[in-house]
Structure formats: structure tokens, C-alpha cells
Write a structure and sequence with these properties.
Residues 1-50 are annotated as: Disordered. The chain is mainly α. Helix content is 72%, strand content 10%. The protein folds into two domains: 1-71; 77-203, Potassium Channel Kv1.1, Chain A (2-Layer Sandwich), CATH 3.30.710.10.
């Protein structure tokens, strides 16, 4: 009887020990999973902090550029356009910004020491929007333009070789075409298309 009791007791102890080992393994696994989850959460938090910092840095940069744009400091190039009653409107700008953003200005300002340029077939509002794009990559003004204003923007954008903006304008003009405006728009663009054709003829 004692032998059987001892055997049962040993079996019972072995079972208890096995259960304890299993519980320890489960706890270890749970701890490992918890650590992994904690690491993932920390990585996600770091990513969120990084995004927030990048957003703040861009906001600061935009603020700096806004102040830079509205201040007359360091402005070394004047753009003149047609104003009301044929008065000329002057936009004071920075050669460096213009040459970085526009292939046209880069070519002109690299070769010649110009301090001013006239675009008398461009109005004040159009040039103001073009400069918004050049300085800030701002496209918000596009939503307020009708199809004829878009054509005016496309003319100057193409002339200044602002390729990305020109492509956007072309697509918006095409989408705006309808039975009521297709011929007036084509008429408005005729001189512009002729200029493009001449340029292409010179290239080829």
C-alpha cells in the first residue's frame, strides 16, 4: 500500500511540476509577446512623432518662405505685367527662387545679368498666382479660375517652362470643354498653339 501511495504521490508531484513548467512557459511566451507588442507600439509612436516633426518643420519652412516672399529684403529681380488702364504692375522677386523653379528663368538669368523683365501680355492676377506656385507650390488658386483664366495661366506657365503646372492646366482645360465653350477656348488658345508649333518646328 505504501508503495502505491508513494507512486501516486510521485506521479502527482510530477504532474504538478509539469503543470508549473507549462505555466512558466506560457508566462514566458506571454511576456515575449507583450515585449514585442510594446516594441511595435514604440515604433508606431516614433513614426507618429517623426510625422509631427516633419509637418512642423514644413510649416516653419513655409512660414519662412512666406515672410521671405512678402519682405523686400534680398529681392533683386523685377517682373512687370499689365495692370488696369494699361499701367504696369511691378512684382519684386528673387533671382535664386525663379531660377531654381523655372527652366526659362534659369536659362535667362544664368546667361545674362538681368534685373527686370516685362510680361505685358500677362495681367496682375495671373502673375500673382504664378508666383504663388513658384514660391510655395500653391495650387489652391486653380479652383477659383474659369476656363479662360486657366488658358491665361497656361500661356504664361508654358512660357516660363513650369512643366508640372502646365500639365495640370492642360488637363483642367480639357475637362472644362463643352459644347458651349469649345470654340471660344480654341480661339483664345490659337495664338498660344501657334507659338508652340513654332517652337517645336525650331527644335526639329
Amino acid at each position: 500500500m505504501k508503495t502505491n501511495d508513494n507512486s501516486n504521490e510521485n506521479n502527482s508531484n510530477a504532474q504538478i511540476e509539469e503543470n508549473e513548467n507549462e505555466n512558466e512557459n506560457e508566462n514566458e511566451n506571454e511576456n515575449e509577446i507583450e515585449k514585442e507588442n510594446q516594441k511595435e507600439n514604440e515604433k508606431e509612436n516614433e513614426k507618429e512623432i517623426q510625422k509631427e516633426n516633419e509637418t512642423k518643420a514644413k510649416e516653419i519652412l513655409l512660414g519662412n518662405f512666406t515672410n521671405f516672399y512678402h519682405s523686400n529684403k534680398f529681392k533683386d529681380f523685377s517682373i512687370f505685367v499689365k495692370g488696369k488702364e494699361d499701367k504696369q504692375i511691378e512684382f519684386k522677386t528673387h533671382k535664386l527662387i525663379l531660377s531654381v523653379r523655372s527652366r526659362f528663368f534659369h536659362s535667362i538669368l544664368y546667361q545674362e545679368n538681368e534685373s527686370e523683365m516685362y510680361f505685358l501680355d500677362c495681367n496682375e492676377e495671373t502673375m500673382k498666382n504664378i508666383l504663388k506656385y513658384i514660391y510655395f507650390a500653391d495650387l489652391s488658386f486653380l479652383e477659383k479660375q474659369n476656363e479662360f483664366q486657366l488658358v491665361s495661366l497656361l500661356k504664361i506657365s508654358s512660357h516660363l517652362q513650369l512643366d508640372f503646372l502646365s500639365k495640370i492646366l492642360e488637363n483642367k482645360i480639357i475637362r472644362s470643354l463643352g459644347d458651349s465653350n469649345v470654340f471660344p477656348i480654341l480661339k483664345e488658345m490659337s495664338s498660344f498653339l501657334q507659338e508652340i508649333s513654332k517652337k517645336n518646328a525650331l527644335i526639329f
